[in-house]
Amino acid sequence: MPSHFNHHLSEASYFWAQTSAMQAFVTAASVLVIAFLFRVHQLLKAVDQLPAPPGKKWKLPPGPRGLPYLGNLLLYSKGEKGAHEIAKYGEMVTTHLGSKLWVVLNSNRLAHELYAKHGKVTNGRPPMPIVNDLLSQGRRSVMLPIDGWAERRRVMHQLLSGTAMTKYAEYQADESAVLLANYLRKPQEWYAHNARYANSVIYRITFGEKPKEGGNLMTDVTKAQFLFLLNAPPFNFWDCFPGLAELPKFLQWWRGTFERAGKFTHDAYFEYYSPIKRNILEGKAPQSFARDVLLGQAKYQGSDTDKMFLTMQLVEAGSDTTRLAINIAILAAVRWPEKFLKARADLDRVCGADAARLPDFGDEESLPYINAFAKEILRWRRIFVWTPEHTLTENLEFEGYYFPRGTSFVINHASISENPDYFEDPLSFKPERWLDGNETDLAAGSWQFGGGRRLCVGYKLAQKSIFINLSRLFYCFNFEEREPFDDKSIQHFTMGEPFPINVKGRGEKWTALIERAA
Ligand code: HEM
After folding, report:
1. Distance between CA atoms of 7 and 22, rounded to whole angstroms?
2. Does the C-beta of 461 come closer than 6 Å to ligand 1?
3. Hey, what CATH topology would domain 73-517 get?
4. What ipTM does this complex have?
5. How far is the CA of 104 from the centre of ligand 1 (A)?
6. Whole-Å CA distances, 417 to 108, 411, 455
7. Taking the model in full, what pTM does it have?
Protein backbone atom coordinates (compact mmCIF):
# COMPACT_ATOMS: atom_id res chain seq x y z
CA MET A 1 0.00 0.00 0.00
CA PRO A 2 1.41 3.41 -0.99
CA SER A 3 2.61 5.37 2.01
CA HIS A 4 0.60 8.52 1.19
CA PHE A 5 -2.57 6.36 1.29
CA ASN A 6 -1.53 5.09 4.74
CA HIS A 7 -0.95 8.65 5.79
CA HIS A 8 -4.45 9.71 4.67
CA LEU A 9 -5.93 6.70 6.38
CA SER A 10 -4.31 7.51 9.68
CA GLU A 11 -5.30 11.18 9.33
CA ALA A 12 -8.89 10.13 8.58
CA SER A 13 -9.05 7.73 11.50
CA TYR A 14 -7.53 10.40 13.75
CA PHE A 15 -10.18 12.84 12.47
CA TRP A 16 -12.95 10.31 13.05
CA ALA A 17 -11.63 9.42 16.46
CA GLN A 18 -11.53 13.13 17.32
CA THR A 19 -14.99 13.70 15.89
CA SER A 20 -16.55 10.75 17.69
CA ALA A 21 -14.90 11.79 20.95
CA MET A 22 -16.33 15.29 20.40
CA GLN A 23 -19.72 13.84 19.50
CA ALA A 24 -19.65 11.58 22.53
CA PHE A 25 -18.75 14.56 24.68
CA VAL A 26 -21.49 16.75 23.17
CA THR A 27 -24.03 13.91 23.51
CA ALA A 28 -23.05 13.25 27.12
CA ALA A 29 -23.14 16.99 27.91
CA SER A 30 -26.54 17.34 26.20
CA VAL A 31 -27.90 14.37 28.14
CA LEU A 32 -26.61 15.93 31.35
CA VAL A 33 -28.10 19.34 30.54
CA ILE A 34 -31.44 17.76 29.57
CA ALA A 35 -31.41 15.61 32.72
CA PHE A 36 -30.58 18.70 34.76
CA LEU A 37 -33.33 20.79 33.16
CA PHE A 38 -35.77 17.92 33.63
CA ARG A 39 -34.79 17.71 37.29
CA VAL A 40 -35.22 21.51 37.70
CA HIS A 41 -38.58 21.27 35.94
CA GLN A 42 -39.63 18.53 38.38
CA LEU A 43 -38.43 20.59 41.34
CA LEU A 44 -40.45 23.58 40.14
CA LYS A 45 -43.75 21.70 40.12
CA ALA A 46 -46.41 23.06 42.44
CA VAL A 47 -48.24 20.60 44.68
CA ASP A 48 -51.29 20.64 42.39
CA GLN A 49 -49.08 19.47 39.49
CA LEU A 50 -48.18 16.31 41.38
CA PRO A 51 -50.44 13.26 40.95
CA ALA A 52 -53.63 13.03 43.01
CA PRO A 53 -54.43 9.73 44.81
CA PRO A 54 -55.64 6.94 42.43
CA GLY A 55 -59.11 7.63 41.02
CA LYS A 56 -59.11 11.25 42.24
CA LYS A 57 -58.37 14.64 40.68
CA TRP A 58 -57.38 17.87 42.33
CA LYS A 59 -60.11 20.48 42.01
CA LEU A 60 -59.21 24.08 42.77
CA PRO A 61 -61.16 27.34 42.75
CA PRO A 62 -60.73 29.66 39.74
CA GLY A 63 -57.99 32.27 39.65
CA PRO A 64 -55.93 34.57 37.45
CA ARG A 65 -53.87 32.98 34.69
CA GLY A 66 -50.18 33.02 35.54
CA LEU A 67 -46.90 32.93 33.63
CA PRO A 68 -45.03 29.65 33.12
CA TYR A 69 -42.95 28.89 36.22
CA LEU A 70 -43.47 32.36 37.71
CA GLY A 71 -47.21 31.89 38.21
CA ASN A 72 -48.82 35.06 39.62
CA LEU A 73 -45.69 36.50 41.18
CA LEU A 74 -46.13 39.78 39.30
CA LEU A 75 -49.55 40.29 40.85
CA TYR A 76 -48.13 39.76 44.33
CA SER A 77 -45.35 42.24 43.65
CA LYS A 78 -48.02 44.98 43.42
CA GLY A 79 -48.78 44.76 47.15
CA GLU A 80 -52.31 45.81 48.18
CA LYS A 81 -53.21 46.69 44.60
CA GLY A 82 -52.48 43.08 43.60
CA ALA A 83 -54.46 41.83 46.59
CA HIS A 84 -57.53 43.75 45.37
CA GLU A 85 -57.07 42.42 41.83
CA ILE A 86 -56.89 38.84 43.12
CA ALA A 87 -60.11 39.35 45.10
CA LYS A 88 -62.00 40.06 41.85
CA TYR A 89 -61.85 36.34 40.99
CA GLY A 90 -64.15 35.32 43.82
CA GLU A 91 -64.47 34.36 47.45
CA MET A 92 -61.69 31.77 47.19
CA VAL A 93 -58.98 32.24 44.52
CA THR A 94 -56.22 29.94 43.29
CA THR A 95 -52.87 31.60 42.67
CA HIS A 96 -49.28 30.45 42.28
CA LEU A 97 -46.26 32.23 43.66
CA GLY A 98 -43.65 30.55 41.55
CA SER A 99 -44.16 26.93 42.52
CA LYS A 100 -46.09 27.63 45.70
CA LEU A 101 -49.84 27.15 45.67
CA TRP A 102 -51.63 29.96 47.52
CA VAL A 103 -55.38 29.78 47.83
CA VAL A 104 -56.51 33.27 48.78
CA LEU A 105 -59.48 33.67 51.15
CA ASN A 106 -61.50 36.80 50.54
CA SER A 107 -64.24 36.40 53.13
CA ASN A 108 -64.64 36.15 56.89
CA ARG A 109 -66.70 33.02 56.37
CA LEU A 110 -63.91 31.14 54.60
CA ALA A 111 -61.19 32.41 56.91
CA HIS A 112 -63.21 31.12 59.84
CA GLU A 113 -63.98 27.78 58.16
CA LEU A 114 -60.43 27.04 57.10
CA TYR A 115 -58.36 28.58 59.90
CA ALA A 116 -60.59 27.76 62.84
CA LYS A 117 -62.95 24.90 61.97
CA HIS A 118 -60.40 22.98 59.86
CA GLY A 119 -57.48 24.13 62.03
CA LYS A 120 -56.43 20.55 62.73
CA VAL A 121 -55.21 20.16 59.15
CA THR A 122 -54.42 23.78 58.23
CA ASN A 123 -51.79 24.45 60.88
CA GLY A 124 -48.76 23.68 58.77
CA ARG A 125 -46.27 25.97 57.10
CA PRO A 126 -44.73 25.27 53.69
CA PRO A 127 -40.97 24.78 53.28
CA MET A 128 -39.16 28.14 53.34
CA PRO A 129 -35.51 27.40 52.62
CA ILE A 130 -34.52 31.05 52.82
CA VAL A 131 -36.55 32.82 55.48
CA ASN A 132 -36.89 29.80 57.75
CA ASP A 133 -33.89 27.54 57.15
CA LEU A 134 -31.20 30.15 56.46
CA LEU A 135 -32.36 33.51 57.82
CA SER A 136 -33.96 32.08 60.96
CA GLN A 137 -31.64 29.08 61.23
CA GLY A 138 -34.82 26.96 61.45
CA ARG A 139 -35.70 28.42 64.83
CA ARG A 140 -38.34 31.18 64.54
CA SER A 141 -41.52 29.42 65.63
CA VAL A 142 -43.73 31.57 63.43
CA MET A 143 -42.20 30.04 60.28
CA LEU A 144 -41.83 26.47 61.50
CA PRO A 145 -43.99 23.55 60.36
CA ILE A 146 -45.90 21.74 63.11
CA ASP A 147 -42.86 19.73 64.03
CA GLY A 148 -40.77 22.15 66.02
CA TRP A 149 -43.55 24.73 66.30
CA ALA A 150 -45.93 22.90 68.66
CA GLU A 151 -43.56 22.73 71.62
CA ARG A 152 -42.38 26.31 71.24
CA ARG A 153 -46.00 27.41 71.05
CA ARG A 154 -46.86 25.54 74.27
CA VAL A 155 -44.04 27.27 76.13
CA MET A 156 -44.93 30.75 74.83
CA HIS A 157 -48.60 30.28 75.54
CA GLN A 158 -47.95 29.07 79.08
CA LEU A 159 -45.70 32.04 79.89
CA LEU A 160 -47.85 34.71 78.24
CA SER A 161 -51.23 33.99 79.78
CA GLY A 162 -53.02 33.65 83.13
CA THR A 163 -51.85 35.49 86.24
CA ALA A 164 -48.64 36.66 84.52
CA MET A 165 -50.77 39.13 82.55
CA THR A 166 -51.46 41.16 85.73
CA LYS A 167 -47.75 41.64 86.28
CA TYR A 168 -47.26 42.55 82.63
CA ALA A 169 -50.02 45.19 82.90
CA GLU A 170 -47.94 46.87 85.63
CA TYR A 171 -44.97 47.04 83.25
CA GLN A 172 -47.20 48.43 80.53
CA ALA A 173 -48.66 51.18 82.73
CA ASP A 174 -45.22 52.05 84.04
CA GLU A 175 -43.60 52.25 80.61
CA SER A 176 -46.44 54.26 79.14
CA ALA A 177 -45.86 56.89 81.85
CA VAL A 178 -42.23 57.03 80.65
CA LEU A 179 -43.52 57.35 77.08
CA LEU A 180 -45.60 60.40 78.05
CA ALA A 181 -42.65 62.02 79.77
CA ASN A 182 -40.50 61.41 76.68
CA TYR A 183 -43.18 62.96 74.46
CA LEU A 184 -43.13 66.00 76.72
CA ARG A 185 -39.34 66.34 76.67
CA LYS A 186 -38.70 65.61 72.99
CA PRO A 187 -41.98 65.76 71.05
CA GLN A 188 -40.16 65.77 67.70
CA GLU A 189 -38.92 62.22 68.45
CA TRP A 190 -42.40 60.85 69.06
CA TYR A 191 -41.85 57.79 66.81
CA ALA A 192 -38.65 56.85 68.68
CA HIS A 193 -40.56 56.98 71.97
CA ASN A 194 -43.13 54.56 70.55
CA ALA A 195 -40.34 52.16 69.59
CA ARG A 196 -38.73 52.53 72.99
CA TYR A 197 -42.03 51.82 74.77
CA ALA A 198 -42.67 48.68 72.74
CA ASN A 199 -39.18 47.38 73.26
CA SER A 200 -39.07 48.17 76.99
CA VAL A 201 -42.32 46.38 77.74
CA ILE A 202 -41.43 43.22 75.90
CA TYR A 203 -37.94 43.39 77.39
CA ARG A 204 -39.36 43.48 80.91
CA ILE A 205 -41.74 40.63 80.14
CA THR A 206 -39.00 38.56 78.59
CA PHE A 207 -36.16 39.36 81.00
CA GLY A 208 -37.94 40.49 84.17
CA GLU A 209 -36.10 43.82 84.48
CA LYS A 210 -35.83 47.23 82.84
CA PRO A 211 -33.56 47.51 79.81
CA LYS A 212 -30.37 49.49 80.33
CA GLU A 213 -30.74 52.99 78.92
CA GLY A 214 -28.35 54.05 76.20
CA GLY A 215 -27.42 50.56 74.97
CA ASN A 216 -27.36 50.16 71.19
CA LEU A 217 -27.51 46.36 70.98
CA MET A 218 -31.15 46.64 69.92
CA THR A 219 -30.01 48.30 66.69
CA ASP A 220 -28.67 45.05 65.26
CA VAL A 221 -31.66 43.07 66.59
CA THR A 222 -33.92 45.54 64.78
CA LYS A 223 -31.89 45.15 61.59
CA ALA A 224 -32.21 41.37 61.90
CA GLN A 225 -35.94 41.76 62.29
CA PHE A 226 -36.25 43.99 59.22
CA LEU A 227 -34.25 41.41 57.26
CA PHE A 228 -36.74 38.82 58.39
CA LEU A 229 -39.86 40.85 57.61
CA LEU A 230 -38.57 41.96 54.22
CA ASN A 231 -37.99 38.33 53.27
CA ALA A 232 -41.14 36.83 54.80
CA PRO A 233 -43.71 35.42 52.33
CA PRO A 234 -44.45 36.56 49.68
CA PHE A 235 -41.35 38.77 49.48
CA ASN A 236 -38.41 36.42 48.99
CA PHE A 237 -38.13 35.31 45.38
CA TRP A 238 -36.19 32.11 46.09
CA ASP A 239 -38.68 30.95 48.71
CA CYS A 240 -41.25 30.89 45.92
CA PHE A 241 -39.28 27.97 44.45
CA PRO A 242 -38.57 25.86 47.53
CA GLY A 243 -37.73 22.80 45.40
CA LEU A 244 -34.53 24.50 44.24
CA ALA A 245 -33.09 23.91 47.72
CA GLU A 246 -32.65 20.29 46.64
CA LEU A 247 -30.11 21.23 43.97
CA PRO A 248 -26.45 20.72 44.87
CA LYS A 249 -25.41 23.64 47.06
CA PHE A 250 -22.77 24.95 44.64
CA LEU A 251 -25.56 25.60 42.11
CA GLN A 252 -27.57 27.68 44.59
CA TRP A 253 -25.54 30.83 44.09
CA TRP A 254 -28.06 32.93 46.04
CA ARG A 255 -27.58 31.02 49.31
CA GLY A 256 -24.47 32.84 50.53
CA THR A 257 -26.25 36.17 51.05
CA PHE A 258 -28.93 34.57 53.19
CA GLU A 259 -26.51 32.35 55.11
CA ARG A 260 -24.66 35.52 56.06
CA ALA A 261 -27.96 37.18 57.03
CA GLY A 262 -28.74 34.15 59.23
CA LYS A 263 -25.35 34.47 60.90
CA PHE A 264 -25.91 38.20 61.38
CA THR A 265 -29.23 37.40 63.09
CA HIS A 266 -27.63 34.78 65.30
CA ASP A 267 -24.81 37.14 66.30
CA ALA A 268 -27.15 40.08 66.95
CA TYR A 269 -29.27 37.88 69.21
CA PHE A 270 -26.18 36.45 70.89
CA GLU A 271 -24.71 39.86 71.75
CA TYR A 272 -28.01 40.96 73.21
CA TYR A 273 -28.86 37.77 75.07
CA SER A 274 -25.50 36.58 76.44
CA PRO A 275 -25.06 39.03 79.33
CA ILE A 276 -28.66 38.39 80.39
CA LYS A 277 -28.14 34.65 80.22
CA ARG A 278 -24.98 34.96 82.32
CA ASN A 279 -26.94 36.84 85.00
CA ILE A 280 -29.65 34.19 85.01
CA LEU A 281 -27.15 31.35 85.34
CA GLU A 282 -25.38 33.15 88.18
CA GLY A 283 -28.71 33.38 90.01
CA LYS A 284 -28.78 37.19 89.83
CA ALA A 285 -31.83 37.65 87.58
CA PRO A 286 -35.51 38.00 88.62
CA GLN A 287 -38.23 35.62 87.45
CA SER A 288 -38.88 36.04 83.72
CA PHE A 289 -39.77 34.25 80.49
CA ALA A 290 -36.05 33.86 79.70
CA ARG A 291 -35.25 32.46 83.15
CA ASP A 292 -38.11 29.95 83.06
CA VAL A 293 -37.01 28.78 79.61
CA LEU A 294 -33.33 28.60 80.52
CA LEU A 295 -33.60 27.00 83.96
CA GLY A 296 -36.17 24.39 83.00
CA GLN A 297 -39.38 25.65 84.68
CA ALA A 298 -40.96 25.95 81.24
CA LYS A 299 -40.00 22.32 80.46
CA TYR A 300 -38.63 23.31 77.08
CA GLN A 301 -36.44 20.63 75.51
CA GLY A 302 -34.54 22.73 72.93
CA SER A 303 -30.77 23.37 72.80
CA ASP A 304 -29.18 26.56 74.19
CA THR A 305 -29.38 28.19 70.76
CA ASP A 306 -33.04 27.18 70.45
CA LYS A 307 -33.70 28.81 73.82
CA MET A 308 -31.97 31.97 72.69
CA PHE A 309 -34.07 32.15 69.50
CA LEU A 310 -37.31 31.42 71.36
CA THR A 311 -36.57 34.25 73.79
CA MET A 312 -35.30 36.73 71.24
CA GLN A 313 -38.15 36.01 68.82
CA LEU A 314 -40.48 37.24 71.53
CA VAL A 315 -38.55 40.51 71.90
CA GLU A 316 -38.64 40.90 68.15
CA ALA A 317 -42.30 39.99 67.56
CA GLY A 318 -43.52 42.08 70.49
CA SER A 319 -41.54 45.22 69.65
CA ASP A 320 -42.21 46.10 66.09
CA THR A 321 -45.91 45.31 65.74
CA THR A 322 -46.76 47.37 68.83
CA ARG A 323 -44.61 50.28 67.60
CA LEU A 324 -46.41 50.23 64.25
CA ALA A 325 -49.86 50.06 65.82
CA ILE A 326 -49.18 53.18 67.94
CA ASN A 327 -47.77 54.99 64.89
CA ILE A 328 -50.89 54.17 62.89
CA ALA A 329 -53.14 55.38 65.71
CA ILE A 330 -51.38 58.75 65.59
CA LEU A 331 -51.73 58.79 61.81
CA ALA A 332 -55.49 58.29 62.23
CA ALA A 333 -55.62 61.05 64.86
CA VAL A 334 -54.00 63.46 62.37
CA ARG A 335 -56.12 62.42 59.40
CA TRP A 336 -59.44 62.08 61.19
CA PRO A 337 -59.44 64.91 63.80
CA GLU A 338 -63.17 64.58 64.48
CA LYS A 339 -62.66 60.93 65.53
CA PHE A 340 -59.70 61.92 67.65
CA LEU A 341 -61.79 64.59 69.38
CA LYS A 342 -64.56 62.07 69.98
CA ALA A 343 -62.03 59.77 71.68
CA ARG A 344 -60.75 62.79 73.66
CA ALA A 345 -64.30 63.65 74.78
CA ASP A 346 -64.72 60.11 76.11
CA LEU A 347 -61.44 60.38 77.97
CA ASP A 348 -62.46 63.71 79.49
CA ARG A 349 -65.74 62.15 80.61
CA VAL A 350 -63.92 59.35 82.42
CA CYS A 351 -60.73 61.08 83.64
CA GLY A 352 -61.89 64.67 83.88
CA ALA A 353 -61.61 67.59 81.47
CA ASP A 354 -59.11 69.27 83.79
CA ALA A 355 -56.41 66.59 83.94
CA ALA A 356 -57.73 64.93 87.12
CA ARG A 357 -55.91 61.64 86.48
CA LEU A 358 -54.35 59.50 83.77
CA PRO A 359 -56.47 56.81 82.13
CA ASP A 360 -55.65 53.34 83.44
CA PHE A 361 -56.50 49.69 82.82
CA GLY A 362 -59.43 49.97 85.22
CA ASP A 363 -61.07 52.27 82.63
CA GLU A 364 -61.14 49.75 79.81
CA GLU A 365 -64.83 48.95 80.17
CA SER A 366 -65.72 52.66 80.40
CA LEU A 367 -63.74 53.56 77.28
CA PRO A 368 -65.14 51.36 74.51
CA TYR A 369 -64.43 54.05 71.91
CA ILE A 370 -60.67 53.84 72.55
CA ASN A 371 -60.69 50.08 71.98
CA ALA A 372 -62.91 50.55 68.93
CA PHE A 373 -60.37 53.10 67.67
CA ALA A 374 -57.63 50.47 68.11
CA LYS A 375 -59.62 47.92 66.10
CA GLU A 376 -60.27 50.44 63.37
CA ILE A 377 -56.57 51.33 62.94
CA LEU A 378 -55.77 47.66 62.29
CA ARG A 379 -58.46 47.60 59.61
CA TRP A 380 -57.84 51.03 58.06
CA ARG A 381 -54.03 50.83 57.69
CA ARG A 382 -53.37 47.19 58.40
CA ILE A 383 -49.90 46.06 59.37
CA PHE A 384 -50.09 42.85 57.33
CA VAL A 385 -51.58 42.42 53.84
CA TRP A 386 -51.43 38.61 54.06
CA THR A 387 -51.59 36.27 57.04
CA PRO A 388 -48.63 33.90 57.19
CA GLU A 389 -49.51 30.78 55.22
CA HIS A 390 -51.70 28.16 56.89
CA THR A 391 -50.70 25.05 55.03
CA LEU A 392 -52.59 21.80 54.62
CA THR A 393 -50.95 18.85 56.33
CA GLU A 394 -53.17 16.38 54.44
CA ASN A 395 -55.36 16.38 51.30
CA LEU A 396 -58.70 18.10 51.94
CA GLU A 397 -62.14 17.91 50.35
CA PHE A 398 -63.90 21.20 51.02
CA GLU A 399 -67.05 22.72 49.50
CA GLY A 400 -66.73 20.74 46.24
CA TYR A 401 -62.99 21.33 45.88
CA TYR A 402 -60.16 18.88 46.45
CA PHE A 403 -56.95 20.48 47.74
CA PRO A 404 -53.60 18.70 47.85
CA ARG A 405 -51.49 18.51 50.99
CA GLY A 406 -49.12 21.49 50.85
CA THR A 407 -51.80 23.98 49.69
CA SER A 408 -51.41 27.24 51.63
CA PHE A 409 -54.46 29.23 52.64
CA VAL A 410 -53.83 32.95 53.09
CA ILE A 411 -56.24 35.62 54.24
CA ASN A 412 -56.50 38.69 52.03
CA HIS A 413 -56.63 41.48 54.61
CA ALA A 414 -56.85 44.22 52.02
CA SER A 415 -59.96 42.83 50.34
CA ILE A 416 -61.74 41.81 53.55
CA SER A 417 -60.98 45.11 55.29
CA GLU A 418 -62.33 47.12 52.38
CA ASN A 419 -65.32 44.95 51.56
CA PRO A 420 -68.43 47.19 51.80
CA ASP A 421 -70.55 44.14 52.71
CA TYR A 422 -68.61 43.95 55.97
CA PHE A 423 -67.64 47.58 56.47
CA GLU A 424 -69.96 50.27 55.23
CA ASP A 425 -67.99 53.15 53.64
CA PRO A 426 -64.77 51.15 54.07
CA LEU A 427 -62.29 53.84 53.09
CA SER A 428 -63.41 56.06 55.94
CA PHE A 429 -62.02 55.75 59.43
CA LYS A 430 -64.96 54.94 61.70
CA PRO A 431 -64.28 53.45 65.12
CA GLU A 432 -68.08 53.45 65.68
CA ARG A 433 -68.37 50.36 63.47
CA TRP A 434 -66.69 48.29 66.19
CA LEU A 435 -68.97 49.33 69.05
CA ASP A 436 -70.55 45.90 69.43
CA GLY A 437 -69.63 44.83 72.95
CA ASN A 438 -66.46 43.03 71.77
CA GLU A 439 -64.24 46.10 71.76
CA THR A 440 -61.69 44.74 74.22
CA ASP A 441 -61.13 41.65 72.07
CA LEU A 442 -58.82 43.02 69.38
CA ALA A 443 -58.88 39.78 67.42
CA ALA A 444 -62.70 39.54 67.26
CA GLY A 445 -63.77 40.47 63.75
CA SER A 446 -60.18 41.07 62.59
CA TRP A 447 -57.64 38.68 61.07
CA GLN A 448 -54.61 40.91 61.69
CA PHE A 449 -53.48 38.51 64.42
CA GLY A 450 -53.89 35.47 62.18
CA GLY A 451 -56.19 32.76 63.39
CA GLY A 452 -56.86 29.19 64.46
CA ARG A 453 -54.13 27.45 66.42
CA ARG A 454 -51.47 29.80 65.08
CA LEU A 455 -53.26 32.93 66.36
CA CYS A 456 -50.73 35.54 67.57
CA VAL A 457 -49.63 34.41 71.01
CA GLY A 458 -49.15 38.02 72.14
CA TYR A 459 -52.42 39.54 71.01
CA LYS A 460 -53.78 40.18 74.50
CA LEU A 461 -50.57 41.93 75.42
CA ALA A 462 -50.83 43.94 72.22
CA GLN A 463 -54.40 44.95 73.06
CA LYS A 464 -53.34 46.24 76.49
CA SER A 465 -50.38 48.16 75.07
CA ILE A 466 -52.44 49.80 72.39
CA PHE A 467 -55.22 50.70 74.85
CA ILE A 468 -53.00 52.28 77.48
CA ASN A 469 -50.95 54.32 75.03
CA LEU A 470 -53.81 55.50 72.86
CA SER A 471 -55.84 56.60 75.85
CA ARG A 472 -52.96 58.40 77.57
CA LEU A 473 -51.51 60.00 74.43
CA PHE A 474 -54.92 61.18 73.24
CA TYR A 475 -55.70 62.54 76.68
CA CYS A 476 -52.48 64.53 76.98
CA PHE A 477 -51.30 65.51 73.48
CA ASN A 478 -52.45 67.11 70.22
CA PHE A 479 -51.20 65.97 66.81
CA GLU A 480 -51.13 67.86 63.52
CA GLU A 481 -49.67 67.48 60.04
CA ARG A 482 -46.36 69.37 59.59
CA GLU A 483 -46.38 69.19 55.78
CA PRO A 484 -48.56 67.35 53.26
CA PHE A 485 -47.94 63.59 52.92
CA ASP A 486 -49.63 60.55 51.43
CA ASP A 487 -51.06 58.55 54.32
CA LYS A 488 -51.20 55.38 52.21
CA SER A 489 -47.46 55.06 51.78
CA ILE A 490 -46.03 55.65 55.21
CA GLN A 491 -42.55 54.32 55.95
CA HIS A 492 -43.10 51.29 58.18
CA PHE A 493 -39.59 49.91 57.97
CA THR A 494 -37.66 52.88 59.18
CA MET A 495 -36.61 53.86 62.64
CA GLY A 496 -36.85 57.50 61.49
CA GLU A 497 -40.05 59.57 61.37
CA PRO A 498 -42.63 57.60 59.33
CA PHE A 499 -44.71 60.69 58.43
CA PRO A 500 -44.21 64.42 59.19
CA ILE A 501 -46.25 65.65 62.14
CA ASN A 502 -46.00 68.04 65.08
CA VAL A 503 -46.86 66.87 68.58
CA LYS A 504 -47.88 69.41 71.23
CA GLY A 505 -48.76 69.01 74.89
CA ARG A 506 -52.39 69.78 75.76
CA GLY A 507 -51.60 72.32 78.45
CA GLU A 508 -49.97 72.98 81.81
CA LYS A 509 -52.32 70.78 83.84
CA TRP A 510 -51.56 67.79 81.64
CA THR A 511 -47.85 68.51 81.81
CA ALA A 512 -48.04 68.50 85.59
CA LEU A 513 -50.03 65.25 85.52
CA ILE A 514 -47.39 63.56 83.37
CA GLU A 515 -44.58 64.83 85.55
CA ARG A 516 -46.29 63.43 88.65
CA ALA A 517 -46.76 60.03 86.98
CA ALA A 518 -43.27 59.60 85.50
C1 HEM B 1 -50.57 44.81 66.71
C2 HEM B 1 -49.84 43.87 67.21
C3 HEM B 1 -49.61 42.50 66.63
C4 HEM B 1 -50.02 41.96 65.44
C5 HEM B 1 -50.84 42.60 64.34
C6 HEM B 1 -49.52 40.59 65.40
C7 HEM B 1 -49.75 39.69 64.38
C8 HEM B 1 -49.31 38.37 64.36
C9 HEM B 1 -49.61 37.42 63.32
C10 HEM B 1 -50.41 37.69 62.05
C11 HEM B 1 -49.04 36.24 63.66
C12 HEM B 1 -49.11 34.92 62.87
C13 HEM B 1 -50.45 34.27 63.10
C14 HEM B 1 -50.79 33.15 62.15
O15 HEM B 1 -49.92 32.50 61.61
O16 HEM B 1 -52.01 32.90 61.96
C17 HEM B 1 -48.35 36.45 64.92
C18 HEM B 1 -47.62 35.50 65.58
C19 HEM B 1 -46.88 35.76 66.71
N20 HEM B 1 -46.90 36.91 67.47
FE21 HEM B 1 -47.94 38.58 67.08
N22 HEM B 1 -48.82 40.35 66.56
C23 HEM B 1 -48.86 41.48 67.35
C24 HEM B 1 -48.31 41.65 68.61
C25 HEM B 1 -47.53 40.72 69.24
C26 HEM B 1 -46.93 40.91 70.55
C27 HEM B 1 -47.10 42.13 71.47
C28 HEM B 1 -46.19 39.78 70.81
C29 HEM B 1 -45.36 39.52 72.03
C30 HEM B 1 -45.62 38.79 72.98
C31 HEM B 1 -46.35 38.88 69.66
C32 HEM B 1 -45.76 37.65 69.54
C33 HEM B 1 -46.01 36.76 68.52
C34 HEM B 1 -45.37 35.46 68.41
C35 HEM B 1 -44.31 34.92 69.36
C36 HEM B 1 -45.92 34.83 67.29
C37 HEM B 1 -45.61 33.43 66.77
C38 HEM B 1 -46.55 32.48 67.45
C39 HEM B 1 -46.39 31.05 67.01
O40 HEM B 1 -45.35 30.69 66.47
O41 HEM B 1 -47.33 30.27 67.24
N42 HEM B 1 -47.18 39.48 68.74
N43 HEM B 1 -48.56 37.76 65.34
Report:
1. 22
2. yes
3. Cytochrome p450 (1.10.630)
4. 0.99
5. 20
6. 10, 11, 18
7. 0.91
